[in-house]
Amino acid sequence: MKVTVASRAPAVESGSRGFWPLRDLPVVLWLLGVVVVSLAHTYIPAPRWLMIHLLVLGAAGHSILVWSRYFADTLVRLPPTPRRVQSRRLLLFNLGVLLVATGVPGSQWWLVVVGAVGIAVAVAWHVVGLLRGLRTGFASRFAGTVWFYVAAGALLLVGVTLGTVLAADPGEPLHTRVQLAHIAVNLLGWVGLTVLGTVVTLGPTMLRTRILEGAEQRGRQALPVLLAGIALVVAAAWADVVLLVPAGLLVYVVGAGLVVWPLARTARVKPPTSFPAWSLLAGMAWLLGLLSALVLHVSWAVSHAGSWLGIGKATEQLTPYLAAGFVAQVLLGATSYLIPVVMGGGPAAVRATNRDLDAGGALRVSLTNLGLLVCVLPVPSPVRVVASVLVLAALASFVPILVRTSRRRRTARSADTPETTLRPVGQTTGIAVVGLALVMTAVAFGGSLDPARLVGAPHSAADGAVPTGHTTAVTVEAKDMRFTPSRIRVPVGDRLVITVENTDRTDVHDLVLETGHDSGRIAPGESAVLDAGVVGRDVDGWCSVVGHRQMGMVLAIEAVGAPMAAVAPSAPPGGAASTAGAHAGHEMAPGEPAPGTVIPDPALPSLEPGRVHHRTFTITEQVKEVAPGVTQQLWTYNGSSPGPTLHGRVGDTFVIRLVNHGTVGHSIDFHAGQRAPDAVMVTIPPGKSLTYRFTARRAGIWLYHCSSAPMSAHIANGLFGAVVIDPPDLPAVDRSFVLVQSEHYYGPQGGPVDMDALQAEKPDAVVFNGYRNAYDHAPLTVKVGERVRIWLLDAGPDRPLSFHVVGGQFDRTWLEGDWLLGSARGPSRTGGSQALALAAAQGGFVETVFDEPGRYTFVNHVMVDAERGAHGAIDVTG
């Protein structure tokens, strides 16, 4: 039996033929959004989340609403749903997606809630319509497909609810559990069930052949199996039973196999010859392949770490490939096949549309799938970046091809022509070789950019030892700033292979040997294999994450039987050991900031309206100029060091969403609030977030900083800032400034903090607001007679601050919550202050009035620190 999805030709109001803006445009706009976010991801918050949801929830979700209704009407032989009804439903759904896609990156939870309600109402409306169709339609052997759609819609209602919970950021480990359930019901349920139910009939139709006998029966048998798999995953997350996760995924793979097996047999008999069929089959292959890999990955994570973080990491790693390999390819393949059917226009127009949409099909499919395969493999980062660009270009080419097709179909002749005279260009399969060549070129080009090649290859630790042919395999655990075991004994001549398992819950680690061998960064719950080669001498190893080596994360490899004279050679230039003491090479000669360098504005931010303040702090790694001619890789809150200054009143509540976009674990500690440290001051791994809520019950200028170990490194490398809470009786002044002192311990140019200098307490610079001599280059400006208040905070991590203004005197000072000189009623009449002394993590303010115009210098009167850069100026005009 040959199944067709061609529709009847009813009136335009209720039919499906012809252009229909609310049906045809949203999917194109969502796909364009994916392309824009991909290209501008550096400047867009939560780009990974946004790309996945614009594709899966936006483009695929819209298409599911459209085409599942279309197939349901066709399969149970119902009149087409009135266009006005579908338009309202589609409008509600797409507006809901738009609100969610705006609310999550913008940290506006109320937008997420409103959008989620809109999506849920639209989908519930859709499901009710499907159920009514099943009750009133004709009996059909393919009605089981409609039950796939009903189940998928019901699961999305659950998924939307879980997504709303995720947007509120419940914290770990609950976040990972909810996220896993969210992915299961949305990606495997809403999208997966819809696709699997549809390919039972659409797959053979796209291959232009008959459906195998019994295929629809296999589909009916698969639905409860698929639902059972999803239910097991959700139950595992709900009941906190990690062992059920791989079991649930395996059950789902079995159910998917029941559906795909008849399609695979059909494709063997009638191989695909067009872009839609190639793309659909490739998408199904990615679904089964990636889910099988996920079963293995999650099983390993459960057996080795037994934590949700390991499972969450595995799921996060493969979800983008499911979105691109499975969802995107099935979406583009099905859309390319269905558009000519519903656009109509006569046989000639349909054939012309088919031919145009098939343009370059073999090239597009080969680029997409070979490029994705390269991205999945353990290749250097530059190779993955170049390959992903090819994949994006191949997938995005659908949009201009569709636009061109829409224009050209208007000129198609209405007269019928023999089909054999028109062969779609994409059917020339030889063009796939071009795709292979492009991917191989991309791999070669990306490999040439691999930073590992620029610093030289690792050198051998054999030291002339004769290889024994034996391999010593050792498993090393990285946890709590220690390697266990911390000493490995290897017979001389043996090859050493080390499996490094990171069993920490939050911290990223690695293992670097003095020979240059490197495991690469290892996320919590993950492992890596380091092949050290033949060992003929003692070798030292360590974790190269900033500060971890200094906290004791070192490893010793002892060559048993090595001669006493076997001494380790120095590391190669640019190698793993070349950064020690690199700060000594920086010359601190005076100079001007580089063009484009922005000196931080020292003005105290205005008080925000309201008593509850929502902010998002995103941790990123930024290479910034910190002194004329000196750049460092800083860890930053919102791209700056110090981070944003918060300003509030006593009694204000701050709700801070902390997002870690760095490469190691980070955290935050607000001194302005009283909270249990183990509740909110926890280290979150890369890609995770938490919500830190506190109420400022006491006045002061309070430090906030990263509290992850080693804390000195995280503060010295830029993760700190100030919270100013005004006393209730604080008098108004003409000018208010904020100066935060900190220290710099320079690593190599463009590199992170030098831990040796930090531990030796030998700073290269002591600075205000993150830049050496910042306000010599951009002085503070005030007028004669204005009352000036300067809030001061010593962020440390170590050096004290004795703040003094040359030529000025303070008539009112305030330290750590109370007045030292003067009061809220007024300045001291006869007393004065020449300096305000602060230890690390202390703060206060000074006030003065300048009687004469001129340039007044302010300094840290610990003079060696003033000469290191804690120095600036105030320009007073008449």
UniProtKB/TrEMBL annotation:
Q: Which residues cross the membrane?
A: 27-44, 50-70, 90-106, 112-134, 146-168, 180-202, 222-239, 245-264, 276-300, 320-340, 361-379, 385-403, 424-445
Please give the InterPro entries that the UniProt record associates with this protein: Cu-oxidase-like_N, Cu-oxidase_fam, Cupredoxin, EfeO_Cupredoxin, NO2-reductase_Cu
Q: Which residues bind Cu cation?
A: H666, H671, H705, C706, H714, H861
A UniProt-annotated Pfam family: Cu-oxidase_3
Q: Which domain of life is it from?
A: Bacteria
Which part of the chain is the EfeO-type cupredoxin-like domain?
469-531
Which intervals hold domain Plastocyanin-like?
A: 624-728
Q: Example GO molecular function term?
A: nitrite reductase (NO-forming) activity
Entry keyword RNA-binding: no
UniProt keyword terms in alphabetical order = Copper, Membrane, Metal-binding, Oxidoreductase, Repeat, Transmembrane, Transmembrane helix
Gene3D superfamilies, from UniProt?
Cupredoxins - blue copper proteins
The ranges of region (Disordered) come to: 568-603
Q: What is its EC number?
A: 1.7.2.1
Sequence ranges of Low complexity compositional bias:
568-583
Q: Catalyses which reaction?
A: nitric oxide + Fe(III)-[cytochrome c] + H2O = Fe(II)-[cytochrome c] + nitrite + 2 H(+)
Provide the cofactor list for this protein: Cu(2+); Cu(+)
Homology family: Belongs to the multicopper oxidase family.
Subunit text: Homotrimer.
Name the UniProt record assigns to this protein: Copper-containing nitrite reductase
Biological source species = Phycicoccus duodecadis
